[in-house]
Design brief:
Blueprint: E1 3-10, E2 19-24, H1 32-42, E3 47-54, E4 57-63, E5 68-69, H2 73-87, E6 95-99, E7 102-109, E8 116-120, E9 125-130, H3 132-138, E10 152-156, E11 161-165, H4 169-173, H5 179-186, E12 193-198, E13 208-214, E14 219-222, H6 226-239, E15 244-250, E16 258-266, E17 273-279, E18 281-289
Parallel strand pairs: 2-3, 4-6, 11-12, 13-15
Antiparallel strand pairs: 1-2, 1-18, 3-4, 4-5, 6-7, 7-8, 8-17, 9-10, 10-11, 12-13, 13-14, 15-16, 16-17
Helix pairs in contact: 3-5
Length: 290
């Protein structure tokens, strides 16, 4: 049978920006191998498959071009938007997705045709730290390009990421990933995404700029990465004082400018940090898989 698919740009301010996503509807009859082949054919950083639903939400699987992953940010927001606009009988708010990492509710903020979609990610876990020299080598930089006052650290809100603090945007733009260095940084743990960031955005109304690299998943660089930016949000709350309410630029070096909205704060009376990531979803096209 044929399957309808939707293409959309997530964390985009306009069509043909942000991060591309393909969402395949009514995919419960597809095998894992078929889903993987379709994701490879689409060749986006992720493709999602809506495989079913129950009274509490929608079952969704997420694939990169070469593997299935338990969670990713822009596929979560983009799939929720497609469910809300095209698959649900009404316009539910929130939209809950049943992912491998657990249930993720996505809520809608704003009226009209251009809302922000927000997801609450898993509370961040903080793991090992790494030497500045190791991170610099992985990114093709010098050790002095990596800040000394913040750690290079493994963080996870569902999909682990190594967070690397850089001094400025000049260093961010000079990144040239060294594959051997990348393997040395990521090879012995499950944090395969590497996010480098700096407090030096292009627009003064924004707060940070970053880039994310995922060669392990067949994505040399990603234009907008909600999961890794959720890790960044938790990292910033852990290593600076007070709650976070920020806008991050990503994807500019790829010609796919993206804006990610981050909110995070420590829960009152608890050790957990609540992380929310938001962005816009712009529809692009729909079609049929034969």
């Amino acid at each position: 049978m044929s399957h309808v698919f939707h293409l959309c740009d997530v964390f985009a301010t306009e069509r043909y920006a942000g991060n591309q996503l393909a969402v395949v509807a009514d995919a419960g009859d597809l095998s894992t191998d078929e889903m993987q082949a379709i994701a490879n054919e689409m060749n986006y950083s992720e493709t999602t498959f809506v495989t079913g639903r129950d009274d509490d939400g929608w079952d969704v699987r997420i694939f990169t071009p070469n593997s299935e992953i338990p969670f990713a940010g822009h596929p979560t927001l983009g799939t929720a938007a497609v469910v809300r606009e095209h698959l649900a009988a009404d316009a539910p708010d929130p939209v809950t997705l049943h992912l491998e990492v657990g249930d993720v509710p996505v809520r809608v903020e704003g009226d009209g045709d251009d809302p922000l979609y927000w997801m609450t990610q898993q509370p961040p876990e903080f793991g090992e730290t790494f030497a500045r020299e190791t991170a610099a080598t992985a990114l093709g930089l010098q050790p002095e390009d990596v800040r000394e006052d913040l750690p290079v650290q493994w963080v996870s809100t569902g999909l682990p990421t190594v967070v690397v603090p850089l001094r400025d945007r000049d260093a961010l733009e000079r990144i040239d990933v060294d594959r051997d260095g990348y393997e040395a940084l990521t090879g012995d743990h499950d944090g395969k995404n590497v996010l480098a960031f700096c407090p030096d955005p292009r627009a003064p109304v924004h707060d940070y700029a970053d880039r994310v690299f995922s060669p392990f998943y067949g994505v040399p660089e990603d234009p907008a990465t909600g999961s890794s930016n959720g890790c960044l949000a938790g990292y910033l709350v852990r290593h600076r004082d007070g709650p976070l309410d920020a806008v991050v630029e990503q994807g500019y070096e790829m010609g796919r400018p993206s804006l990610l909205h981050l909110r995070a704060e420590e829960r009152a009376g608890e050790e957990d940090i609540e992380v929310q990531v938001g962005g816009r979803v712009v529809p692009v096209a729909r079609g049929d898989l034969y």
